[in-house]
Amino acid sequence: MQISSRFTLAVHIITCMDTFKNDYKVTSDFLASSTNVNPVIIRRLLGQLKTAGLVEVARGSGGASVARPLDEITFLDIYKAVECVECGELFHFHENPNNKCPVGRNIHNILDDKLNRVQQAMENELSSITIADVIKDLDKYLV
Amino acid sequence: MQISSRFTLAVHIITCMDTFKNDYKVTSDFLASSTNVNPVIIRRLLGQLKTAGLVEVARGSGGASVARPLDEITFLDIYKAVECVECGELFHFHENPNNKCPVGRNIHNILDDKLNRVQQAMENELSSITIADVIKDLDKYLV
DNA sequence: TTCTGTTGTAACCATTGACAGTACAATGGG
DNA sequence: CCCATTGTACTGTCAATGGTTACAACAGAA
Known about the structure:
2 copies of one chain form a homodimer.
Chain A: H1 6-19, H2 28-35, H3 39-51, E1 55-57, E2 64-66, H4 75-82, H5 102-127, H6 131-142
Antiparallel strand pairs in A: 1-2
Helix pairs in contact in A: 1-4, 2-3, 4-5
The first copy, chain A, binds a DNA duplex through residues 1, 4-6, 25, 27-29, 37-38, 40-41, 43-44, 46-47, 57-63, 84, 94.
């Protein structure tokens, strides 16, 4: 199973928002054009990013902008903003194991800390990468 | 999005296979009873684990057994066995970004190595945990 | 050989989440 | 008051998951 394309899509549009902030009004249609994704999808995504405090969106007049310094927007921030975090857990348990079985009774407890370590490892790495890194790499391609 | 419950389910049944190997014939029905999951689901899962060389399943006579020393079965082995690996990539890209846009044209390249680092971090942690660790923890609960 | 319990699979169904697309009311600057 | 734009409701398609029934293939035991 894969992490939904909302994540890479979000990185893409935030990068766009910064890259084109001086030359264009960055609307959902503008972003839809760069990503080749339906404008409504973009708006919904912007809504999630706004809720997370990562971007600002102008109702009425239109246009979205980044709400923080680029090096303070980590991939983890974006990941948590766009992936269903109320689920929170990366790993999914089969519910209702048999309590009469010693394995079924304890498997959840035993796995919990181990799987948390895995999730932590992933999140640590995610938090070490920021949009500033993306912009820096992008500049190389634009030379 | 979550990693499918096949993963935790697989850890569960492999743990069962070892725990009960001396006292029971470990059939798909037996495993279904401990996990509270349909026997057919178990058989399909056993098929994947067998293909990966982690377990052996006896046709006809019935019963499944672990095919390797427990400390040589890592969570990564199991993860790769049961998660669609032909996909391979943890992160999913929106396809067809606009090549006329400098961001759309380069975003995939820019993100690839960064996201690979994240995936690597997760897989490293997964490969550091083995079924032997699970069994060791289980023993504590059984005292 | 026949009987028996089991595996491997096919076929089908229900549910869920992702992503797409249409439509339109609400918004706020010009 | 316009008008471009956002926010959101509703509908639809598609793929993956997990469940269930059914049954042929299998291998050991009687």
